[in-house]
Amino acid sequence: MDKAKEKVQRFRAREQRILDAALELLLEHGEEKVTVEQIADRVDIGKGTIYKHFVSKTEIYMRLLMDYERSLAERLKVAVGNAEQGDITAPARAYFESRMADPGKDRLFQRLEEKIIALNQAPEMIAELHTIRNAIASALNRVFERRMEQGMIKRVPAYYYYSTYWALVQGAVELYHSKSFADVIEDREGLMEFIMDVGVHIGDISSRKPQETSHSGDIAGPSFG
Predict the structure, then answer these.
(1) Coil, strand, or helix at residue 122?
(2) HEC letters along 57-73
(3) Residues in contact with 178: Cβ distance below 8 Å, sequence separation at least 6, in sequence order
(4) Is residue 206 very low, low, confident or very high in pLDDT (cuts 50, 70, 90)?
(5) Closest by CA position to 143, among listed 188, 87, 71, 182
(6) pLDDT given for residue 68 in this prediction
(7) pLDDT tens for residues 149-189?
(8) Which residues, including other chains, have CB under 8 Å from residue 133's CB and lie 6 or more apart?
(9) Mean pLDDT over residues 48-61, rounded?
(10) Alpha helix (H) residue ranges in 30-150
(11) Most exposed among 18, 78, 136, 155, judged by the fewest C-beta atoms under 10 Å?
């Protein structure tokens, strides 16, 4: 192998180890307690080596956020293709499965993003993150619009569905970690699967009987499958 290419590969591999170590520490200790020194120790490199890859701890966090969002975007791209081939719920399943597979990580990323925005840090990276997310929303909105045209889901502005997806996930991950509900929820994993199923089928009217309408003639509220 060419020495230059080998050097680049080693650099990228070390960078990924830094990101992996940072995520592990964040999940273990929370963002307030993690330091660059801890990350370096976990990777077994010097603190100065971290700065060969990232200018700050905030940049490390933003890379984690963007990698997470890009992974969701890639999975949704495949799912949208599957929807065009007839698997109509594929995008919804991809969205919920991706974000709810690890509630702890999703909740962490929610907090990180809010804090970085509140402190007005890394505005260019935040803008890039939102560009990725907007592309996800646009892809999902196109799916919602097609399904509404086909009479499969209730006709509302398409962004209602994407916003509801987002709200369901945000609420689900908070509920998963809630101490107030700790004595009520006996099966957290089962609850997450139920919420996911609600999301996948929200607004579904494809199996309704024609007479199931409100007094005004409009189709009654959304079915959850």
Answers:
(1) coil
(2) HHHHHHHHHHHHHHHHH
(3) none
(4) confident
(5) 87
(6) 96
(7) 999 999 999 999 999 999 999 999 999 988 898 888 889 88
(8) 69
(9) 96
(10) 36-43, 47-50, 57-84, 90-100, 103-118, 123-149
(11) 78
- H/E stretch holding 159 reads helix 158-177
Task: Decide: helix, strand or coil at residue 7.
Answer: helix
Global pTM? 0.84
Burial of 161 from C-beta contacts in 10 A (0-12 / 13-18 / 19+): buried
How far apart are the C-alpha atoms of 55 and 13, rounded to whole Å?
A: 18
Residues 99 and 91: beta-carbon distance below 8 Å: no
User: Which residue would you say has higher pLDDT here, 194 or 215?
Assistant: 194
Whole-number pLDDT of residue 21: 98
Residue whose token pair is 């993690």:
34
Instruction: Quickly tell me which residue has 């992974």 as its tokens.
Output: 71
In angstroms, rounded to a whole number, what is the distance separating the alpha carbons of residues 122 and 129? 11
Burial 191-214, CB ≥16 within 10 A → b, else e: bbeebbbbbbbbbbbeeeeeeeee
DSSP secondary structure letters along 15-29: HHHHHHHHHHHHHHH
Q: Which amino acid is at 53?
A: H
Residue 130 confidence (pLDDT) above 80:
yes
